[in-house]
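Work Package 3 (structural annotation) set out to generate three-dimensional models for the target panel prioritized at the project kickoff. During this period the team completed the workflow that converts sequence records into discrete structure tokens, so that structures can be stored uniformly alongside our sequence database. As a representative example, we reproduce one entry of 202 residues exactly as it appears in the project archive.
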Amino acid sequence: MKDYVITISRQFGCGAHEIATKLSEKLSIPYYDKEILKRAAKDSGFDERLFVFYDEKPTGSFLFNISADGYTTVTDTGITLEDKIFQYQFDTIRKLAEEGSCIIIGRCSDYVLRDFPNLLKIFLHANNDFRRERVINQYGISEKSAAKEIKTTDKKRARFHNFYSEYKWGDACNYDLSIDVSRIGIDDTVELIADYINKKYA
């Protein structure tokens, strides 16, 4: 089978982390989420806490956008700290994809890798009841705060993605698969993606 990269964009609380973990085990390929921040910090020399602080947060800068053929150098004047952080993060995503088959969670990876061969772009979503139950049980968020946390996190991810990308976050037209996890569950979502991979890249 050819090397391939799966990028997963996701609504908060739809089970993306659990799905990526199980899919990684089933396909015997690595997946990267917070690990991207650790590696970007190591490669850049910046404190890892900076990457954590700015993780998938919309920037206030209009000086930097992803280009298909490379990035503005970090030594250029006028580039904000946020943009330097994101540039290193995007470079890390490209490096990980070049190392072999893998799964990459969020962080505009679907757009960063848009010209990458054998790219499978997935968007995971679910209904509000499913998501609310998960964030309460999985993350210890109170029932009172759950709905607000879901809305805030989704808004943050959408703004970050839409700023750096020409693709609209969550628009089914921009993904190979858009899956409602609440309809078929975690395990069947894993099976669906794995079956698609086997048919497309075998």
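Confidence is low (pLDDT under 50) at residues 61-77.
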